[in-house]
Structure to design on (273 residues):
């Protein structure tokens, strides 16, 4: 079945690249099944939610997950995700597709820059040391000497803002938002890259669940016959990707993934034109 094959492809990319692979779910569903972006978004979010939950529980060392930070981001998404869903419903499809294409380009360019500037971070799925890539200090989100978040007004406000933005983006475009959470945590805190990705996975699971629930509450139709095999395929693909990651994950893989995102953005623009 086409939906299952597309799910396997998304899961495989997720397993190999970490938290950013889910951004391809929407364009793949649009290309493979001929759906519009609003049709593809909730199904993509279901796969993102299941894969991120799997990644949080199984694929990542849970000692790196900052649970309270992820929970706070999820709580703020409850407010902003419905707003994103509503915006997607009233926005012209051409504008929505162009916005998604722009996001793909931004994420791809950032990924290419990362592979050139910090190749070790491009292979995050292979990291095993808690402090790998840790940054000193943290301008807004303060980190203790034990690697824990120091909760104060600034930290709570920064983490809440990340969750609010990610929730809106998830509702609007049907993406998990790892491309928002990971760089934001990295820039505003002293958390290691490994901890940023692990925390992002839990937050993505919560935010995606909120966005899907919001879409269903607003009457968005979901093709469950395609959604179920797509989600199961994504889980199977992620498991396979996690097993393959230690052998092939790294900067070259990230560069190839970035190139695919640029091609997907080009396809979206040409589809509109």
């Amino acid at each position: 079945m086409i939906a299952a094959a597309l799910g396997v492809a998304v899961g495989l990319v997720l397993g190999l690249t970490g938290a950013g692979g889910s951004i391809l779910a929407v364009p793949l569903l649009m290309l493979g099944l001929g759906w519009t972006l609003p049709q593809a978004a909730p199904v993509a979010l279901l796969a993102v939610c299941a894969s991120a939950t799997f990644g949080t529980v199984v694929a990542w060392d849970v000692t790196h997950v900052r649970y309270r930070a992820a929970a706070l981001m999820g709580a703020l998404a409850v407010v902003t995700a419905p707003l994103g869903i509503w915006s997607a419903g009233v926005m012209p499809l051409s504008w929505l597709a162009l916005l998604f294409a722009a996001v793909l380009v931004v994420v791809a360019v950032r990924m290419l820059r990362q592979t050139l500037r910090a190749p070790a971070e491009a292979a995050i799925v292979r990291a095993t040391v808690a402090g790998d890539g840790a940054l000193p200090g943290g301008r807004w989100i303060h980190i203790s000497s034990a690697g824990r978040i120091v909760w104060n007004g600034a930290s709570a406000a920064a983490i809440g803002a990340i969750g609010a933005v990610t929730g809106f983006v998830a509702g609007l475009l049907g993406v998990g938002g790892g491309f928002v959470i990971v760089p934001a945590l990295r820039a505003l805190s002293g958390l290691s890259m490994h901890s940023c990705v692990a925390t992002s996975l839990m937050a993505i699971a919560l935010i995606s669940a909120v966005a899907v629930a919001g879409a269903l509450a607003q009457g968005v139709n979901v093709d469950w016959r395609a959604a179920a095999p797509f989600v199961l395929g994504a889980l199977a693909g992620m498991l396979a990707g996690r097993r393959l990651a230690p052998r092939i994950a790294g900067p070259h893989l990230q560069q190839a993934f970035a190139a695919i995102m640029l091609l997907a953005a080009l396809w979206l623009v040409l589809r509109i034109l």
In short: The chain has eleven helices and no strands. Residues 124-137 have pLDDT under 50 and may be disordered. Residues 2-272 form one domain.
